[in-house]
TrEMBL record, chains A, B:
Protein's UniProt keywords contain Oxidoreductase: yes
Classification via InterPro entries: ABM_dom, Dimeric_a/b-barrel
Organism: Paenibacillus sacheonensis
Name by which UniProt lists this protein: Antibiotic biosynthesis monooxygenase
GO MF annotations in UniProt: monooxygenase activity
Source organism phylogeny: Bacteria, Bacillati, Bacillota, Bacilli, Bacillales
């Protein structure tokens, strides 16, 4: 059986005045580190319309691949600045269902 | 300019003993109502590995389409049961970036 992908839905809570800066920092982290890591599959970065959240949705081959990336020192300056303006709530998931529009 | 899609990342917090039931209820809501709504594009349902969360990631054409679906009475029995076992935190987003693995 093919192992299922690991999905991270990481929610950052932020003051609306800092939302744009947080988006920049997470974009930089992804470009300097995450995209280059073995086992990284894809991710999408989201800005909440109310200004209070930024959420990264990311898929990885395995938890081991994700943890190996977390050992990379290059993104640390961006992450440290991010944590001065945001509260970070990470969570690991598996997909249990996907749904398309009904044919009617 | 083409308007961008609206993304909902709706996080439900639950006791681990109730996670499986919550997954069932949200699957039923999607099948009886959401999939049939005009403007629904796709969604994926996720179970956290620690048992404490269930998160629905959904894309819609517009906020108006989503709100029209919320007026449908068919999913209410499932949603009312879900709210007896879970805390619901909805959030509307726009995608600000997508990332693929770097070519190396």
């Amino acid at each position: 059986m093919k192992p299922s992908l690991l999905t991270f839905i990481n929610v950052f809570t932020v003051e609306p005045a800092n939302q744009e800066r947080l988006v920049e920092l997470l974009t930089q982290v992804t470009n300097v580190s995450v995209r280059h890591a073995p086992g990284f599959i894809s991710c999408a970065l989201h800005r909440s319309l109310d200004g209070t959240k930024v959420t990264m949705y990311a898929q990885w081959r395995s938890k081991e691949d994700y943890e190996a990336m977390r050992g990379d020192p290059r993104p640390l300056p961006y992450l440290q600045e991010a944590l001065t303006i945001a509260k970070f709530e990470p969570c690991m998931y598996e997909v249990v269902g996907t749904f398309e529009p009904a044919a009617e």
